[in-house]
């Protein structure tokens, strides 16, 4: 073989290795559990025939179907209107060993003026720091939606965020007892916007 063709082959090998390398360094997929709160005979918050269990399930399904990123695996604790104990949920979560758990809920209050999105993490969890960081990032992602009023993260001893062996955040997506919140929580387009922002937030996770 001529010296020039050898040089040419060497060059080709160098270029192809440059293209192969990033493939080998592809990021490990991130597994996320989206936990739709309540279900079955447990309706969660209710308001004139509107149920928390239905709203959070609709948004969880939307997150799963809107996610097209192969590096993000979305798992749902429930895919139907079934009663699922908190223990069963954390059993499922801890068997999967996800990178992140988002438990979706909707609030209610006797004070009908109360509104907005709230985040909860557990300071009893060894993943408290990471959970708080995730809550902060999710807060920013959801605040992009002008329909939502997001508030700071609070700590609470709720089962899912305390017993999950992974960073875990409870997201209360709004108050069903507040007219403004109820409108966006039950609107298909607004639900899509919320789900899109959650998917965007997931895609930004490292
Ligand atoms: Zn709830």
Describe it for me?
It is an enzyme of class 3 (hydrolase). The chain has seven helices and eight strands, in the order H-E-E-E-H-E-H-E-E-H-E-H-E-H-H. It has helices at 3-24, 52-66, 86-96, 128-143, 159-163, 179-185, 188-203; strands spanning 30-36, 46-47, 50-51, 72-76, 100-107, 117-121, 150-155, 168-175. The protein has a single domain (29-203), classed as 3-Layer(aba) Sandwich (Aminopeptidase), CATH 3.40.630. The strands form two sheets. It has a six-stranded mixed sheet, sandwiched between helices. It has a two-stranded antiparallel sheet with strand order 2-3. The chain has 206 residues and is α/β, with parallel strands linked by helices. Strand 2 (46-47) and strand 3 (50-51) form a beta hairpin. The relative contact order is 0.18. Bound molecules: zinc ion (ZN). Zinc ion (ZN) is lined by residues 37-38, 44, 52, 105. The site of zinc ion has 5 residues, from loops.
The domain tally reads 1
Share in helix:
40-55%
Describe the strand arrangement of the main beta sheet, using strand numbers.
4-1-5-8-6-7
* Rg (C-alpha, Å): 21 Å
Structural class: alpha/beta
Order of helices and strands: HEEEHEHEEHEHEHH
Shape descriptor reads globular
CATH class term: Alpha Beta
Catalytic activity: Hydrolyzes the link between N-acetylmuramoyl residues and L-amino acid residues in certain cell-wall glycopeptides
Organism: Flavobacterium laiguense
Enzyme class: hydrolase
GO molecular function: N-acetylmuramoyl-L-alanine amidase activity
């Amino acid at each position: 073989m001529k010296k020039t063709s050898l040089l040419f082959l060497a060059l080709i090998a160098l270029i192809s290795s440059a293209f192969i390398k990033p493939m080998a360094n592809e990021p490990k997929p991130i597994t996320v559990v989206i936990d739709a709160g309540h279900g079955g005979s447990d309706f969660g918050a209710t308001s004139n025939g509107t149920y928390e269990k239905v709203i959070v399930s609709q948004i969880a399904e939307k997150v799963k179907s809107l996610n097209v990123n192969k590096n993000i695996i979305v798992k749902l604790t429930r895919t139907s209107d079934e009663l699922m104990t908190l223990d069963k949920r954390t059993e499922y979560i801890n068997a999967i060993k996800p990178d992140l758990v988002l438990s979706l809920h909707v609030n209610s209050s006797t004070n009908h003026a109360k509104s907005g999105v709230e985040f909860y993490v557990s300071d009893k969890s060894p993943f408290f720091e990471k959970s708080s960081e995730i809550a902060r990032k999710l807060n920013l992602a959801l605040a992009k939606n002008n329909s939502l009023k997001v508030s700071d993260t609070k700590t609470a001893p709720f089962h899912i965020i305390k017993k999950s062996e992974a960073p875990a955040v409870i997201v209360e997506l709004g108050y069903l007892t507040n007219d403004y919140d109820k409108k966006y929580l039950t609107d298909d387009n607004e639900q899509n916007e919320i789900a899109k922002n959650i998917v965007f937030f997931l895609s930004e996770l490292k």
